[in-house]
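User: Show me a protein chain along with its predicted structure.
Assistant: Here is one chain, sequence first, then structure tokens.
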Amino acid sequence: MEIEALNCPNCGVGVASDRTQCELCGSRLKTMACPSCLGLMFVGTRFCGHCGEEMVRAETPTGDKLGDCPRCGIRLEMLQIAETTVRECGRCDGLWADVGTFERLCSESEQSSAVLGFIGGREPKALPAAKISYVPCPDCGQLMNRSNFARASGVIIDICKTHGVWFDAGELPRIMEFIQKGGMEAARQKERFELEEQRKRLREEQRKFGLEDPKTGLGSIFEREDNASIRSFVRRLFD
């Protein structure tokens, strides 16, 4: 990583970007990428020193409505990233997104790029591998379903069909990268193949019993090659 001269977000003194603590005020320092220009900055800085964009701000949690981390059991905190609001666990870096937020992240490139730029710029915490288990929804406490996103991403997410999605550390960036690199097309092709196999089996059954081949009426959630198809897929996760 290229070493730059940055300002401590607490006292404003100049500090090298590879330092983990401010020599003047003792504040702990961690670098991240600006969601707007991807320039290097310290977490907690209000404005990017490269482009002047107002930065991510973590809000102090209020009340019990934020829920607890499904993994750690500690209270979640609100996190604002550009126009996106999620809840974060300060211990394991897990993230909770409600249904609407997750849909927008999957279909709107500007929001997904901002989130990817912020989360991808954080230093990963040295944590033990998460135990594979069903975890409770932070909102309702019911055990969530586990699902391989798009059936082709290899990212297993925890879904409450009523309230939202839980991402263990690193899972949300993997999904954003999967979508940005065209991974949804692999999901489309897989679904088309499976639908065609179903049609073939139906035609074989019809021929076997000497019946006419009726219209199957099997449709695809990926028929349109635009963001609307991605939105349709995400909604299907919560049906």
